[in-house]
Structure prediction request, 770 residues.
Amino acid sequence: MLQEANAVTKDGLGLVVTKEFKFAEPPGELPLDCGEKLGPITVAYETYGELNREKSNAILVLHAFSGDAHAAGWHEGDSKPGWWDEMIGPGKAFDTDRYFVICSNVLGGCKGTTGPSSVDRATGKPYGIDFPLVTIPDMVQVQARLVDHLGIGRLLSVAGGSMGGQQVLEWLVSFPERVQSALVIATAAKHSPQQIAFNEVGREAIMSDPNWNNGQYYDGEQPVRGLSIARMVGHITYMSDASMAEKFGRRTGGNGHARPFGRGFEVEDYLHHKGLTFVDRFDANSYLYITRAIDDYDAGKGGTLAAAFKGLEARVFVISFKSDWLYPSYQSADIVRACKKAGVDVSYYDVSSTYGHDAFLLEVEEQSVLITSFLRKVTEEGEGI
Amino acid sequence: MLQEANAVTKDGLGLVVTKEFKFAEPPGELPLDCGEKLGPITVAYETYGELNREKSNAILVLHAFSGDAHAAGWHEGDSKPGWWDEMIGPGKAFDTDRYFVICSNVLGGCKGTTGPSSVDRATGKPYGIDFPLVTIPDMVQVQARLVDHLGIGRLLSVAGGSMGGQQVLEWLVSFPERVQSALVIATAAKHSPQQIAFNEVGREAIMSDPNWNNGQYYDGEQPVRGLSIARMVGHITYMSDASMAEKFGRRTGGNGHARPFGRGFEVEDYLHHKGLTFVDRFDANSYLYITRAIDDYDAGKGGTLAAAFKGLEARVFVISFKSDWLYPSYQSADIVRACKKAGVDVSYYDVSSTYGHDAFLLEVEEQSVLITSFLRKVTEEGEGI
Prediction:
């Protein structure tokens, strides 16, 4: 396995490690949107490339719902690299020969950053659903503390797709002066009822699993079936009608998934496999908290996005994908319209793809050209790096 | 309630009752697609209007997944009429002053026709998942026995939407000589992997509910939460992004659905309500069997639909709805193409609507005009009624 990894990484970042940053805001806790305070907070993060002397080449990459800090390179012994490895590395779109790339796991997550599976110092047990309700703005506040810690004032760019794109929007709203440019990919300024509805099915599946046990399952059986169902729904929405037809057609299943009757189809086996493997790498309570944060988020804060973007000096690039029906292109076009109305320098590209929402992870070639060119423009026309 | 019902029914069909037809094929059982035999079989059905002397004015209406034999008129004490009441009645599209309309509950159902909740004579207990695997062609065989029983040789028309539309296709394939015309609405000749995937999420939610108990729950607690989740998924797919946005927007919820944290949105309350009320009227095992039959169905029987339709003399009218993403218009267009290739007399209309798949139940006005005109043509150009 490691040999294979090493072979593949020859022209990539090679081995990387996840680091930890702990902070305790005086008087020891971070004030959250919900009014509660939380601390100390641990942030899991990775960095790739070198920060230049002027500290002007830092790009913050923000992960999607089930992503983590491990965006690129290889962890020792792993059989695959970070989730956006094809985009981040020497000579790639986020060129680590030029840029210093940072990625951290979100607040509320389960990949090293404080979340509902972390131990609550008050009880000595995992928080479970006593974890406070965290929001996309809270996640961004935590990221800002990490950027402070790394000694960076202004980011050359913030970039992310899906939930990561929501965080990009929130960086623009919360810290406009700290963002020189923004890559807003396959996202929405606020969720539609259809997007909320799919997430609610997932939440309900988890909470209906008796093993969920009102969020305290860390000592016992995990809510495996509920979380698996949630992930099955997710996977349908990440693909497209066309990409599913191409990948599975109506080939019959039967490999690896026992059924009480009927033979079933390959697509069913695939969903079960995806559901059950997800359970090994994700915490059910994080699923609840993070989807709630995504659903609740409104970049316009109840008003218009154009008003929220008023006076913004960052250069913005919005990318969507034609077959993405979970985050349809019209939601990206809405963001573009708001930018224009607010006088923000914005570009937009609607990429032809049959991959559905997954396209932001899979359409490497076209995105690479677009992002490379955008970042060049930003550095050349801006203060330079 | 009854007063209200009576007031509304003044110009409709008034009170109707569901009838029963029992049959026992010699030697007592119906051979099924799966190779097993089943019998005796009870069929719940309703009829509206009068069969003419020539028995040439009969229209068989076929219900969708969660429908039943009660297509029109009012049951004593009910607060709402049958599921297609706006389309069936005196002066309506399926004009009961002209036509004799029949609707029956499908085999495998839970509304009076033999299904997994029926008592197995061999054990004296409900079949549960010992019920044989039934198919769309099996359902149509049972309907044909009912039509025989009513003394009707050839049907003026067979009509149905969604799963009902699959049955219409199967009538054309299994009994081409018994069908003068066909109304194929919002359906597919075979399910795509995306359609199968959504159904599999529902099945998995039901079977993951500990109360499902391998299909034997009739004496105890029903798998309420699992079936409710299945229905929640269904409802998302029946609506459209646009119709959900219009109906719910991002209005916050909180009425009637308790949450462990967060306030949630009105769309979530709606889905929970729809899920929990569905449980009162539908059997979880029927959900499993019927969705399996829908997913397995292929009108072309593994070959092309055009080949299956070769020589067909029925006049066919295909209707789809532009915002229906569960049964997208291209699937209807595929049926039309197959008809043309087979030399079948086919018309097609893609109705503008924002209602999504639900449009076949909600777009009454436009469908009425289309269907009225189609049935007039069939009777005028055909043998007359």
